[in-house]
Amino acid sequence: MLRISNIKLRADFEPSKENELLSQKIQKILKVKQDKISSFKISKKSIDAREKNNVQLVYSVDIEIENETKYLGMKDVSSVKPLEYSIKNVRKKTHRPVVVGSGPAGLFCALILAEQGFNPIVVEQGMDADRRKLAVDKFWKYGILDTNSNVQFGEGGAGTFSDGKLTTGIKNARIPKVFKELVEAGAQKETAYLAKPHIGTDILITVVKNIRKKIERLGGEVRFETKMKEVIIENGEVRGVVLENYGASNVIETDSVVLAIGHSARETFYMLKDIGVEMIPKPFAVGVRIEHHQKDIDKQQFGCFADSPLLGASDYKLNAHLQNGRGVYTFCMCPGGHVVAAASEENSLVTNGMSYSTRSGENANSALLVSITPNDFKGDVLAAVEFQRKLERKAFELGGRNYFAPVQLVGDFLVDKASKQLGDIKPTYTPGVTPTDLRECLDDFIVESLKDGLHAMDRRLPGFIKHDAVLSAVETRSSSPVTIKRNPTTFESNIKGLYPCGEGAGYAGGITSSAVDGIKCAEALIMIEV
Questions:
Q1: Domains (ranges, CATH) in the chain?
Q2: What pTM value is reported for the model?
């Protein structure tokens, strides 16, 4: 198969003409007529918006054509071989492995195990996706929190209620396997080739359900509303787990436990520390969410092409290195999205961002975060958890003790003035917001770092500092504050048979990288080669 890269189309054509225009470009590049091309498909699609008066879509296409070698000397033409995920050298199974958590890492770990006949048991403290959505909607509407099933816990993990971004900084041969499974489970077909793919919460709910059903069809089992309370260890090896469901406990004998527990599994972190599992503190970040009108971001990013239906809602990614040694950066930017209530503990306030598949909301939002390092806690492995809790409880108090988010206008924040009312940009957070002074819930170094970061980012994206842009506190769950140590070859912790996995264990940073890490842990568990 041939691949032609760097095909450019100005972003002002009719969407229905895409394939026709690409075909014309292919014919011109290869100097052939259409009947010589057996087929072609898009393998990558990105946006080049460096010139605001000439925004372009940039494509790579894969082509089937006779006498492929004839064209290999041409510019931007290469030969490609489709990647096929395959495994071999599977060991004979003994006990059924237990996978703790049903986020991307847990689901994809369990899927690989099920495909290889290991009949995994997945345990998830939250509800299945449909019932979980009802619980989350109840919290967003009425402020009634279910501490077991919420934005952090439940089928699909924290990623289910997010923008569903699939962009990742890692390069790994397992990524096509992840995308293939996501598309087969209901994700948009463009997921496989967009440079910045996203799924959206509304579709993710269906996707994670379908992956779970596939695991079950292959012999796996998924137990919802079931907590892992203890790992049974004998002579430094896993011998089983103690599970709890509605107050009733039972024991599963196993020699393999995968910890795909997510970045908010605080009770589990403390339990692992008590039983001697080695953990170390890791860098993470805390801060706020910032909201602008999406139309203003589009105009800044796409210029006169801002209304093009080919481009969709624009995004941004900004960072600044400050004189105080800290970094400030945007994270999980949600075009046309919503700031959401993401608490998992009572009397705590946590914000996050989410978009639906259409990204058609009025506002853009992003986390605006300040870097935190282990040096801030002088070696205490779980001190960062308590630091997060402190910020979340202060935000809860400041918001009015009813899960309303404390908010402040950017213009007021920069001059240390409490906000009394909102401006043109209306916050999307529900159940409600309380205009206030965020200095009352954020440490001084966070406040000063955010101010410096805002000024630096405004120089890169003019208009980022807009007086009535809204800051909502507090964002504390951007990543896990700990790393559960594991052997880089066997993927086991210091306890034989215990496999730390995914974002919660400190080895991933999003849906795609978490899914890949889940696959890698499954491979290590069943001793396969890829």
A1: 2-79 (3.30.70.2700), 98-280+480-526 (3.50.50.60), 283-475 (no CATH)
A2: 0.95
